[in-house]
Amino acid sequence: MISPGPASGEDEIEAIRQPLDINSSSSDDDTVTIEPEDAYLRSLRVQRELANRARPKVPMEIDSPFDPAALGLKEIGNLASWTVSSCKPGCGVDALRDDDTGLFWQSDGPQPHHLNIHFSRLVSILSIRIFLDFEADESYTPTRITLLAGTGYHDLIPFAALNFEQPKGWLDVPLDHVGGGLDGKTLRAFLVQVRIVENHQNGKDTHVRGLKIYARDDRARAGIGGLLGDEAMEKKSVLKGQGNGMERSWLVEPDWMGEPELR
After folding, report:
1. Tell me, what DSSP letter sits at residue 69?
2. Nearest partner of 191 among 115, 108, 102, judged by Cα
3. Are 175 and 185 in contact (CB under 8 A)?
4. Helix %, strand %, coil % for the chain, to 5?
5. Is this prediction's pTM over 0.70?
6. List of domains in the chain
7. What is the Cα 210 distance to its own chain's centre?
């Protein structure tokens, strides 16, 4: 009697092959002859092998390595004022900003929930990362998030809409079409708002376990104390008109006008 356990791919192939390939007689000394694999079975075996190779070797929830220093980035969240629409006691901005993803911001009010990140000057943002954990938070896990940016609350414009099913780990917010910088992937804003539109299973309140904002680290790239050397403080561009050339100087921001730092 055959046990009902699941059969492997080779077992399934053998089960198909037996009625086709094996010839036997009633004699005790008869030998079993296996015919060469036919085209159908060969195709089936190849398909299974390709499917097994296509399966991801690493679980999807494992984060890909992210080294800000190697990318020439620095986290600038400490230069901003953070506020949230509501929070449970002990689960506010401090918990959200903590590097320990075991802590989280938990809202405590009507939807949509939102958090505001307000900088004192115009900043150039190259990366935004959000940490969510469906396994730990279940119905508190956001499934729809909208990010907006502007100079203030009166002119916020959406720049990213995120949809999740069961997120786990650090998630990168796409900045491909924000329009700033030479490549169009730099977000320039005073204010960034993260709006939680919907939670898993229509949960009322939400959990966000981490949020990081990165800008270019000019000091690390230059390898000196200032943002740029003296020789790079002024760039010249010649615009040629109708027979007359006009020279325009583009001044790079001096060090005292750079991003404020907490010392």
Report:
1. T
2. 115
3. yes
4. 25, 35, 40
5. no
6. 73-216 (2.60.120.260), 228-257 (no CATH)
7. 12
